[in-house]
Amino acid sequence: MNKESLICPVCRGRGSLLDVVDLNKSCEEPRGKFLPLAGVPVYYAQCGNCGFCWAPEICKWPMGKFEELIYNDDYVSVDPDYLEKRPNVNANNLRSMFPSLPAHLRHLDYGGGNGLLARLLRESSWNSVSFDPFADRDIALTSLGNFDLITAFEVFEHVPDVQSLVADLRSVLSKDGLVLFSTLLSDGNIVPNQRLAWWYASPRNGHISLFSRRSLARLAQDNGFVFGSFSSGFHAFFRNVPQWAGHIIRAGQD
Ligand SMILES: [Zn+2]
C-alpha cells in the first residue's frame, strides 16, 4: 500500500496500518453467525491525529465492485434489519422527536435505500424525500432543492469519500438546517497496537469508514458546522440551532 493511501481522508494527517481482517467479517458475528472466510484480506488504517479508521483499498473501489462484493443479493443476510425494521424504528423515533414539525419544512433522508423511511413519514404528513447515492445514481442530489432537516441513518460508515459526503449534505442543507445521523463512535473500541476485534468494523457490511469523536468534530469544523452527540451512536451537525429543533439540541446538551 503506498504512502498516499495512508493519508487521513478526514484531516490529512498521517495514518498507519492498524490491522487486517477477512472481507467476510460481518456485524452478525456477535450473534454467533459466521460466514465462511472469503480469502480476501481487507486492511484498515488509522489516523494518528484524529483517530479516523478506514479501509484504504476498498475506499478506492468503483461502484460496480461494491455492488458485486458487498451490496449484492446476500447483503440482507448480514444486515437483516435494513429493509423494514430499521426504517420503521427510525420513523417512530423521528415522529416522537418532532411531534409538531412545521408542515412547510423539507426533510431529506440521505442514504435512504429503498425510500421506506421517507414513505412512512409522508404518511404522517411529513414533507419527506429519499435520496440514496447508490440507488439513485441517475439523480443529481442538488436537483432536489434545499432541505431543513437531513437524516442519514447508518450511512457515514459506508461512505468511501467522507469529505464528499459532508460537502454534499452541506450543499443541500438550508441555512438554519439540521443534519441528524447515526454511526457508532470508535472511541474505546479501536485502539492502536491492538487487534481490530470491534464487531462494527465489518467489511462485509460495507463498514469502511469508522469515526472517532475527534474525526467527526474535525469534519464538522472544516464544513462550518457545530457538532454534537446525543449518544455514542446518534449525532448532529448544524450551523445555527433551528427554532423548531431547539428542544432536541437542548436535550442533547444536558
Ligand atoms: Zn485524521
Explain what the structure shows.
The protein has 7 helices and 10 strands. With 254 residues, the protein is α/β, with parallel strands linked by helices. The chain has one domain (3-253): Rossmann fold (3-Layer(aba) Sandwich), CATH 3.40.50. A 6-stranded mixed sheet has the order 5-4-6-7-10-9, sandwiched between helices. Strand 6, helix 5 (162-172) and strand 7 (173-182) form a beta-alpha-beta unit. The structure holds zinc ion. Zinc ion binds next to loops.
In the predicted model, the low-confidence regions spanning at least 5 consecutive residues are none
Specify Rg, calculated over alpha carbons. Answer: 18 Å
Number of domains: 1
Total helices: the number is 7
The outline comes out as globular
In CATH terms, the superfamily is: Vaccinia Virus protein VP39
Provide the spatial order of strands within the biggest beta sheet.
Answer: 5-4-6-7-10-9
Distance between the termini: 44 Å
Based on helices, strands and strand pairing, what is the structural class? alpha/beta
Question: Per CATH, what is the topology?
Answer: Rossmann fold
Mean pLDDT: 95
Which architecture does the CATH hierarchy give at level 2?
A: 3-Layer(aba) Sandwich
Please give the largest β-sheet.
6 strands, mixed
CATH class term: Alpha Beta
